[in-house]
Input
Amino acid sequence: MARSKFTRYVFPPPWLTRFLERAELLAADPLALPDLPDPDDRLFLGVAQHAGTLVTGNLKHFPEQAWGKARVLAPGPFAAMYGL
Output
């Protein structure tokens, strides 16, 4: 989230940073999560197991066989789904 492609849009907002600091409390048991190409992404998939959906521009790091109960969408299809 600290990459220039995000920060130039004044992202992330302070509330998102605080949320992610506490996200481990919301995540599914990390031992029950599958391995991912980027192990740091397991936290996001763990939270998505409870939230139901993960929106990411990095779909290649979330292979479909790893989704479990979550749905993983790119921003465009997610926005289209909700008329955004």
